[in-house]
């Protein structure tokens, strides 16, 4: 994917002016368990304060290298198709790309034409690279040039809980499309873990057995979960239902 090369010839109107100071020392440290950095931006649904947008919901924030790019178009189409599934889980979706709102809205028309359905969640206009900076959404090389021209965000996904805590992160380079089913599976695992105090094994799917954490004694496990299968003292399975 020759995205980086093509961006060099982007129209001057797409190149952001120097509006922020991007230094490593000022960059928030976004880790699992940290509070998701807040920001105020324009989106295709109007201006938002991100923490107010989250409210008391789970939220998925995901970035895209550029509008009107092929992989991003397929990804946004997939998220659009899966929105009813995220809605069932109380999860809000919000995308991001570095172009302006008018560009996003034109791009959405293409996505709706392909998917044959209405596109219903907002896309952030991050022309100042403020969100890309706060969430460290760029490569090491691009970070050094963040103020000097059009920089593509890599494919970052942040799963944020109702307490505004980052619970999971997935990061891909621009050339690889994301797996939306895996993102949905991660939401299921996180919500189940919070609800039942369990953890999930490799390749777990909704409805599969789960693992009792080693910090729970056999006596406490029997009282809390009822029957369980003990493979090793530290590996005990129980039903997720």
* Uncertain runs: 1-19
Name the CATH homologous superfamily of the largest domain. Answer: Glutaredoxin
Biggest pleated-sheet summary: 5 strands, mixed
| Strand neighbour order, sheet with most strands | 5-4-3-6-7
The radius of gyration over CA amounts to 20 Å
Termini distance?
44 Å
User: Whole-number average pLDDT?
Assistant: 88
CATH architecture of the largest domain: 3-Layer(aba) Sandwich
CATH class call of the largest domain: Alpha Beta
Spell out the helices and strands N to C.
HEEHEHEHEHHEEHEHEE
Strand fraction equals 15-25%
The secondary-structure class comes to alpha+beta
Dominant shape: globular
Helix content: 25-40%
What is the count of DSSP helices, taking H or I runs of 4+ residues?
8
Count of all domains: 2
Number of E strands: 10
Quote the CATH topology of the largest domain: Glutaredoxin
Structure notes:
With 241 residues, the chain is an alpha+beta fold. It has two domains: 3-178, Glutaredoxin (3-Layer(aba) Sandwich); 197-238, no CATH class. Helices cover 33% and strands 20% of the residues. It contains eight helices and ten strands. It has helices at 3-7, 50-54, 70-88, 101-115, 130-134, 140-144, 180-196, 218-225; strands spanning 40-43, 46-49, 58-63, 91-97, 123-125, 155-160, 166-172, 210-211, 229-232, 235-238. The strands form three sheets. Strands 5-4-3-6-7 form a five-stranded mixed sheet, with helices on one face. Helix 3 crosses helix 4. The model is unreliable at 1-19 (pLDDT under 50).
